[in-house]
Amino acid sequence: MKFNSQEFLIHTIATLIQPSNTIAVGVLSPIPGSAALLSQQLSKQTKKKVFILGSSNPKFKTNHGVEIFDLAGQGRIDSFFLSGGQIDGIANINLTGIGPYPKQHTRWSGAFGSAYLYFLIPQVILFREKHNREVLVESVDFISAPGSSPKDTYRTGGPTHLVTNLCVFDFNREEKQFYLRSIHPKHSLEEVLDNTGFNFRYSPNPAITRGPSDAVLEILRTEVSEEISEIYPEFAKKIWS
């Protein structure tokens, strides 16, 4: 069965979060949200919990961000997702804007507690569909949330992976460096190198990211599409019309 690029990314992220028992998803995150729902559908653990900001479904609904912040503080969320206008080689993310602060020539919506969640949730997956040197930079213009902290800083969470439209990176917290985990089909190591602004470790023969099976696609196009359409109707219509 053929699949589109969004279905491929949903499956890729779902694979990474499969061991998690509790997954939280922020706003404007249809692909991570779909991945969390797919992970729940595929899990043999009936108690796997998914919280999605913006959902009115009692199964996924949260009390805005308050409940997620409380659960994170109690150590009860295993996985979360963050993005950024800029992401650098030590997993710092910039959600504030481009240019020297405070006179930035481009401003974004801001961090909204991202740094707090970055410090507390054990598996934070960074996600950007757009992989180029404007997004994946050598050093962010402003650190909205740091990828690492000094050893004497209390920190139970942080980045584990970076997923883009080209590849998957693993993040080594001890070395503070990304490792290329796999490259998506129809893309190449040269393409990843050319479009990444920071240095990373890689094998000369990297693995290829595995695509979804027909059985997974069936679940995506039925149960998952129905559930995510309540939160992101335009996304679901576009992907699974």
What does this entry look like structurally?
The protein has 241 residues and is of the alpha/beta class. It has a single domain (5-239), classed as Glutaconate Coenzyme A-transferase. Helix content is 29%, strand content 21%. It has 7 helices and 13 strands. Strands 3-8-10-11-12-13 form a 6-stranded mixed β-sheet, sandwiched between helices. Helix 1 packs across helix 2 (30-42) and helix 2 packs across helix 6. The longest helix has 16 residues, at 214-229. It is globular and about 45 Å long. 41% of the residues are buried. The model has no long low-confidence stretch (mean pLDDT 95).
Query: Order of SSEs, N→C?
Result: HEHEHEEEEEHEEEEEHEHH
Mean pLDDT: 95
Helix content: 25-40%
Helix count, DSSP H or I runs of 4 or more residues: 7
Question: What is the CATH class?
Answer: Alpha Beta
Q: Could you tell me the radius of gyration in angstroms?
A: 17 Å
Please give the number of β-strands: 13
CATH superfamily: Glutaconate Coenzyme A-transferase
Instruction: Indicate how many domains the architecture comprises.
Output: 1
Major pleated sheet: 6 strands, mixed
β content, as a range?
15-25%
CATH fold node name: Glutaconate Coenzyme A-transferase
Give unreliable regions as ranges: none
Summarize the model shown.
With 241 residues, this protein is α/β, with parallel strands linked by helices. It has one domain: Glutaconate Coenzyme A-transferase (3-Layer(aba) Sandwich).
Keyphrases for this structure?
3-stranded mixed β-sheet, 29% helix, 6-stranded mixed β-sheet, Glutaconate Coenzyme A-transferase, 7 helices, 13 strands, alpha/beta, 241 residues
